[in-house]
């Protein structure tokens, strides 16, 4: 279902799906649909979740969970009352290389974790709603930082986050957005682990997705895309190398099974199993909410220049409002 003419039709044709809709209510009225995946712009996640829950559908919500804490609470509460399952779609918890990385940590091969690092970088999003903070809620620290925050919580066995410190800038895309296009965010966990997220919308040369785990008895580095790619040299260029590759003449990193390497099919398969067997998803609405709290704390920190302690309560409508307080409107 998509209100944009042709979008759902094209998707249905490509995947052999019998129905496609431009109206949400029409799709939700179909009894044979048991679960929905909300892959709409961020500002619509809450509204669509409430409608889908009222129609009795189980729900997967794409990252970031929503726009603010009030929405997060409402989404979790409404799904509970409606008796539908709610999964927060953080695919990094299903990325095969990161699942192995967590396995190394869990079996004790690296000793106790000291420092966790994760970064996502590319040269900027493909659709206008990401750049418009009214519809996205924030820039790269929200859009891609959310991946790192849930990655850290998962790797650190959901130990509570104690504080957040962030440095953000709009370094290149000032003409295009009020949002941050670069962010460095440091999390301090109650068990003493430090985590550092590096996020960028200004890095040319294709998508980067990397993690490092430093423990008391070992260290491990994982590079999801370049580390798994075919190192390719082509004088003509490659038709498709990797997400946001740009010019692929000369050396490039040619990805294979990109969706599988990210863990997207595994993530959806997991939720189908949860619905079938009445299990709790690996990543829940509560995890989505916890990530939102970290996002808000990060923007508050970038705005004040100070470390922010958690729990962090805020009535702000969207994270960016805490960073650019004096620039609103
Ligand atoms: N997990 C990930 O790595 C990942 C990657 C990309 C995007 N996302 C998330 O997915 C969401 C969508 O991003 P995208 O890149 O697919 O954007 P997109 O612009 O490519 O697609 C958004 C789709 O939503 C549709 N839409 C617009 N209004 C709608 C409405 N009222 N009801 C239903 N559908 C509506 C649009 O027509 C379009 O088909 C965002 O929240 C984004 O953060 C997650």
Q: What would you say the CATH architecture of the largest domain is? A: 2-Layer Sandwich
**Which CATH class of the largest domain?**
Alpha Beta
Q: Strand order, main sheet: write it out.
A: 9-8-4-7-6-5-12
**Average residue-wise pLDDT:** 96
What amount of the residues lies in strands?
15-25%
Overall shape: it is: globular
Largest sheet: 7 strands, mixed
The small molecules bound here are: nicotinamide-adenine-dinucleotide
Structure description:
The protein has about 325 residues and is of the alpha/beta class. The chain has a seven-stranded mixed beta sheet. Strands 1-2-3 form a three-stranded parallel beta sheet, with helices on both faces. Strands 10-11 form a two-stranded antiparallel sheet. Helix 3 runs parallel beside helix 4, helix 4 runs antiparallel to helix 12 and helix 9 crosses helix 12. The longest helix has 20 residues. The protein starts with 6 loop residues before the first helix and ends in a 6-residue tail after the last helix. The site of nicotinamide-adenine-dinucleotide has 19 residues, from loops.
Features:
single chain, 329 residues, alpha/beta, Rossmann fold, Dihydrodipicolinate Reductase, domain 2, seven-stranded mixed beta sheet, three-stranded parallel beta sheet, 13 helices, 12 strands, 35% helix, globular, binds nicotinamide-adenine-dinucleotide
SSE arrangement:
Layout: H1 7-15, H2 24-28, E1 35-38, H3 45-54, E2 58-62, H4 69-82, E3 86-89, H5 96-106, E4 113-121, H6 128-131, H7 133-136, H8 140-143, H9 145-155, E5 161-169, E6 182-189, E7 194-200, E8 208-215, E9 219-223, E10 230-234, E11 250-254, H10 258-262, H11 264-277, H12 285-304, E12 308-309, H13 320-323
Parallel strand pairs: 1-2, 2-3, 4-7
Antiparallel strand pairs: 4-8, 5-6, 5-12, 6-7, 8-9, 10-11
Helix pairs in contact: 3-4, 4-12, 9-12
Bound molecules: nicotinamide-adenine-dinucleotide.
The site of nicotinamide-adenine-dinucleotide (NAD) has 19 residues, from loops.
């Amino acid at each position: 279902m998509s209100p944009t003419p042709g979008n759902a039709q094209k998707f249905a044709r490509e995947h052999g799906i019998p129905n496609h809709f431009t109206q949400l209510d029409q799709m939700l009225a179909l009894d044979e649909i048991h679960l929905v995946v909300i892959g709409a712009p961020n500002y619509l996640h809450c509204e669509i979740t409430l409608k889908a829950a009222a129609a009795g559908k189980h729900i997967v919500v794409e990252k970031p969970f929503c726009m603010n804490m009030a929405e997060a609470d409402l989404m979790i509460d409404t799904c509970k009352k409606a008796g539908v399952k709610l999964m927060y779609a953080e695919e990094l918890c299903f990325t095969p290389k990161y699942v192995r990385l967590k396995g190394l940590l869990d079996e004790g091969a690296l000793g106790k974790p000291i420092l966790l690092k994760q970064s996502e970088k590319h040269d900027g999003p493909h659709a206008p709603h990401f750049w418009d903070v009214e519809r996205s809620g924030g820039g790269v620290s929200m859009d891609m930082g959310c991946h790192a925050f849930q990655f850290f919580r998962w790797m650190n066995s959901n130990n509570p986050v104690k504080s957040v410190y962030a440095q953000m800038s709009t370094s290149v895309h000032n003409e295009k957005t009020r949002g941050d296009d670069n962010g460095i965010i440091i999390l301090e966990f109650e068990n003493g682990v430090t985590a550092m997220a590096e996020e960028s919308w200004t890095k040319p040369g294709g998508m980067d997705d990397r993690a490092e785990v430093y423990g008391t008895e070992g260290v491990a580095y994982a590079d999801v895309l370049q580390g798994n790619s075919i190192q390719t040299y082509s004088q003509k260029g490659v038709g498709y190398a990797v997400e946001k590759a740009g010019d692929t003449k000369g050396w490039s990193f040619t990805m294979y099974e990109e969706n599988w390497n990210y863990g997207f099919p595994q993530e959806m398969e997991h939720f189908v199993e949860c619905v079938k067997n009445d299990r709790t998803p690996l990543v829940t609405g509560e995890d989505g909410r916890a990530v939102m709290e970290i996002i808000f704390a990060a923007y508050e920190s970038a705005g004040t220049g100070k470390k922010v302690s958690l729990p962090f309560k805020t009535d702000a409508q969207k994270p960016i409002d805490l960073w650019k307080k004096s620039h609103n409107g």
